Amino acid sequence: MRIPAWMTPHNLLRASVGVAVLTIILKTLAWWVTGSVGLLSDALESFVNLAGAMFALAMVTVAAQPPDAEHPYGHHKAEYFSAGFEGILIVGASAAILWAAALRFRAPQPLEQLSWGLGLSIVSTGFNGLLAWAMFRSARVYRSVALVGDARHLITDVWTSVGVVVGLMAAHVTGWLWLDPLVAMGVALNILKEGVELVWRSAQGLMDESVEHDLLVQIEAALARHAQAANGHMYFDNLTSRRAGARNFLDLHMHVPAHWTLGRAAAARATVEAELMDMVPGLYATIELLPEGAETVFEQAEAKAETHAQQQVGGA
Known about the structure:
Alpha-Beta Plaits
């Protein structure tokens, strides 16, 4: 997928900060002229958008720093902190919205200048929707976890605004003022779900989650092709993987005949590594060469520990 050169994570997150400020102004005005608690909940979430975008921009800047002596694998995981932080902000915003909506539900108030309020809300929603669309496109190219988190947050804001607008129109048509806080409660529960999911995805990334299942299937298929091409003289095992922001890490053992020269084995490994790097964006592969049938000291120790544990269970 090709995108314009300016659609980098840094530029889009800077734009997100600007759009968040603009939507805060528009949605606060919408709440001010209507008195709608639904629009107030929408405006509160825009403050969360602003804080989240600023933090995401800071984390993307950190993640872009090259590896150093203290961080030899780079700083890519910084983006997970951004996604987790946005999730926590969303959860906090949902609690504030639920509280405000519960108070208004007990004492409904008439809505004023509804057309102006709805118009302002729709305009701000359009800005958020366009920016989220651009972020999702850029995130697929740059594999930015922070950008995905901010885009999902903006999409949540879009659906929040849509729900508020529908609720306000229903309250206006039916005269049932309690529909306004009821919609605000529904909005709060919706964004609470999104916040919890963001925190969960961030935690999974920080705990060295493996690469996506579809990618693993492709990797295993590629390794099987290379093994078949070698007529059974080559095989792979101990495949492990993990993700760190835009970077994917892969470790495996490549077994070759003991009589192969080091140059031949290294050339075969380079061929495998090149195909894997073309297949998986941002891949850092570590392929350890071993003779057929050989095991590393670590594998031998693990096997002994497992056998000992089984004997202990059997003896008990």
